[in-house]
């Protein structure tokens, strides 16, 4: 089935907007392809350095120009559950590469921080900027120019976007992303959320809270709720950079290892040395980006990708905007209920039919482009499958289920959970913002209440504890943007706001910071741009100003006389506390030149002014 005309119209708008930057990008990567790598033409000293520690077999193979060399870029560390399984992967990849007649080398490692560990802590101020550090680190790893393709080992929030930005900077190289999979299910996400709320209300102690959290985050693998990490995996599959069905297979299982071996062999098969050359810069085109946004809406994915996908697209010379997200959200129905948009976790989603069923449903509904390139070489139709083990213990593929295994978790486009994706762009005299309403009840889509202004999340928590927020209110938490403090997630505020809402108050959040991939039931206008530190109008808001957040009409406004509003001075804040400690002094240059959330929120602008 061809894509619907309305989806095509947005795609054509993106193509037109990118008509100068995209051809220039393709010209650059084609020139890089033509220039190398040609290991046989390297100076002997260069070449000797590149394989000095290799086995005699690999040295002989790399001395010429006929054996493919596969770069492994890894985000392994053994503190974080999602990345701990990667410890074994290089050995699995090297062995699979030898079986395929190639060589694999760990080209470099990249940092992998966990927003779950740093949530509400000062380390979170480094989180968004870590994406650009990861991209730069990957660039260093690949700068040796001795590789014919790369496999990328990364899962979580900023890691995959950073790896993607770098992979596209080396867009002449084929790239396959290799997931490690989600941890097995622990206690239900609903039970975990209730325990957090009880703790915030002072009804249970730290020991009970820690016991609950430990039963939820209990083993190797990605956290099982549908936040940014698992949204990353969905994106890599629907954009054609995973093998079909690879995203949500649990770690340390025979199928997981088989898929890693298959990914390795596929990466070697699509280099310029063979007949199926498939550079990543050609896979990620305007249609692939649109498919990614559609997948985000259909699954109620992370709001963080309204920042990350813009940065990823710009790395490939593609210009997308928040308006594209908004317009596609009106066209794409919500097909999943995964926590926080439901009670199921990603393991339940996978068991109900997973990515194979979802992609099939989107194809049948004419909501995604089928005619795209993928690492599997099949187009998107080839992703209407699920991965299994064959009799020899290797990965094989069969048609995905035609019927959802659990309609409470996963549906097709003929009977969705809701008609739209639930991600909207708000505009008004405060600025532009993003809101995710897929788990917000309809009677909370419009909130009109007086502002209570804070300059830190801790200040809001203190006010909550003091009983100062027991009323209808809009919490305005400002000076949380990239230039102010690196744009931390403010997920720590979720329990307090949820309690106020459960008490019957009409509450909302307005912030120039981020919320979380787990944004939930309280309406939250986030990523307000321009940010307060950059002269944004959010810095004009005063305590008691009436704020109207209207997700139905896409508006975010202060109900103040226009003349008074225009005459108001911008508030300032003492941000010196953001400048030191937990490594923050190392990122002063990043804060100084960071771009707005609407152009990716980082320091790598790909030729676009901040």
Automatic annotation (TrEMBL):
InterPro entries: 6-phosphgluc_deHydtase (IPR004786), Dihydro-acid_dehy_C (IPR042096), DiOHA_6PGluconate_deHydtase_CS (IPR020558), ILV_EDD_C (IPR056740), ILV_EDD_N (IPR000581), IlvD/EDD_N (IPR037237). Binds 1 [4Fe-4S] cluster. PROSITE patterns: ILVD_EDD_1, ILVD_EDD_2. It catalyses: 6-phospho-D-gluconate = 2-dehydro-3-deoxy-6-phospho-D-gluconate + H2O. This is Phosphogluconate dehydratase. Keywords: 4Fe-4S, Carbohydrate metabolism, Gluconate utilization, Iron, Iron-sulfur, Lyase, Metal-binding. Its cofactor is [4Fe-4S] cluster. It comes from Faunimonas pinastri. HAMAP family: Edd (MF_02094). Pathway: Carbohydrate metabolism; Entner-Doudoroff pathway. NCBIfam families: edd. It comes from the Bacteria. [4Fe-4S] cluster binds at residues 156, 223. One of its GO terms (molecular function) is phosphogluconate dehydratase activity. Residues 408-600 form the Dihydroxy-acid/6-phosphogluconate dehydratase C-terminal domain. Its EC number is 4.2.1.12. GO terms for biological process: D-gluconate metabolic process; Entner-Doudoroff pathway through 6-phosphogluconate. Residues 69-381 form the Dihydroxy-acid/6-phosphogluconate dehydratase N-terminal domain. GO terms for cellular component: cytosol. Catalyzes the dehydration of 6-phospho-D-gluconate to 2-dehydro-3-deoxy-6-phospho-D-gluconate. Belongs to the IlvD/Edd family.
């Amino acid at each position: 089935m061809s894509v619907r005309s309305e989806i095509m119209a947005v795609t054509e708008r993106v193509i037109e907007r990118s008509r100068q930057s995209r051809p220039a990008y393709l010209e650059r990567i084609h020139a890089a392809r033509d220039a190398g790598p040609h290991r046989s033409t390297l100076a002997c000293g260069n070449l000797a350095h590149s394989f000095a520690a290799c086995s005699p077999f690999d040295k002989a193979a790399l001395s010429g120009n006929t054996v493919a060399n596969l770069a492994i870029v890894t985000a392994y560390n053994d503190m974080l559950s999602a990345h701990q399984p990667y410890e074994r992967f290089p050995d699995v990849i090297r062995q699979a590469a030898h079986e395929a007649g190639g060589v694999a080398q760990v080209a470099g490692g990249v940092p992998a921080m966990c927003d779950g560990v740093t949530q509400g802590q000062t380390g979170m101020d480094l989180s968004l900027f870590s994406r650009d550090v990861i991209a730069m680190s990957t660039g260093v790893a690949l700068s040796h120019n001795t590789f014919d393709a790369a496999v990328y080992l990364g899962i979580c929030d900023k890691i995959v976007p950073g790896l993607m930005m770098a992979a596209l900077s080396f867009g002449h190289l084929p790239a396959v992303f290799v997931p490690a999979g989600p941890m097995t299910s622990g206690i239900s996400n609903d039970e975990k959320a209730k325990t957090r709320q009880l703790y915030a209300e002072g009804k249970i102690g730290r020991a009970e809270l820690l016991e609950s959290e430990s039963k939820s985050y209990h083993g190797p693998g990605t956290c099982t709720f549908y936040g940014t990490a698992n949204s990353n995996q969905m994106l890599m599959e629907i954009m054609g950079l995973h093998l079909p069905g690879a995203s949500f297979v649990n770690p340390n299982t025979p199928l997981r290892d088989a898929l890693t071996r298959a990914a390795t062999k596929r990466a070697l098969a699509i280099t310029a040395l063979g007949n199926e050359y498939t550079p990543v810069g050609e896979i990620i085109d305007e249609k692939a980006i649109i498919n990614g946004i559609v997948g985000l809406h259909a699954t109620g994915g992370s709001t963080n990708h309204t920042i990350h996908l813009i940065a990823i697209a710009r790395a490939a010379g593609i210009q997308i905007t928040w308006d594209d997200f908004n317009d596609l959200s009106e066209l794409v129905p919500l097909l999943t209920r995964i926590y926080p948009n439901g009670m199921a976790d990603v393991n339940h989603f996978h068991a109900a039919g997973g990515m194979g069923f979802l992609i099939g449903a989107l194809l049948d509904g004419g909501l995604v482009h089928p005619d795209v390139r993928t690492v599997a070489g099949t187009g998107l139709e080839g992703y209407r499958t699920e991965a299994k083990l064959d009799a020899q213990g290797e990965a094989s593929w069969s048609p995905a289920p035609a019927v959802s295994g659990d309609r409470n978790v996963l549906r097709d486009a003929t009977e969705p959970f809701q008609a739209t994706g639930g991600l909207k762009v708000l505009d008004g005299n405060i600025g532009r913002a993003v809101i995710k309403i897929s788990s917000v009840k309809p009677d909370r889509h419009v909130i009109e209440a007086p502002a209570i202004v804070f300059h830190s999340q801790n200040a809001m928590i203190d006010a909550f504890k003091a009983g100062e927020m027991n009323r209808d209110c809009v919490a305005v938490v400002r000076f949380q943007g990239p230039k102010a403090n690196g744009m931390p997630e403010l997920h720590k505020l979720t329990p307090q706001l949820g309690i106020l809402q459960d008490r019957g108050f009409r509450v909302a959040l307005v912030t120039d910071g981020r919320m979380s991939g787990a944004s939930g039931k309280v309406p939250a206008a986030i990523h307000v741009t321009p940010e307060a530190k950059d002269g944004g109008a959010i810095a004009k808001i005063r305590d008691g100003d009436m704020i109207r957040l209207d997700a139905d009409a896409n508006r975010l406004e202060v109900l103040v006389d226009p003349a008074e509003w225009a005459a108001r001075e911008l508030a300032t804040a003492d941000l010196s506390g953001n400048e030191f400690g937990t490594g923050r002094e190392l990122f002063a240059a990043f804060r100084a030149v960071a771009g707005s959330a609407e152009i990716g929120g980082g320091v790598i602008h790909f030729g676009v002014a901040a």
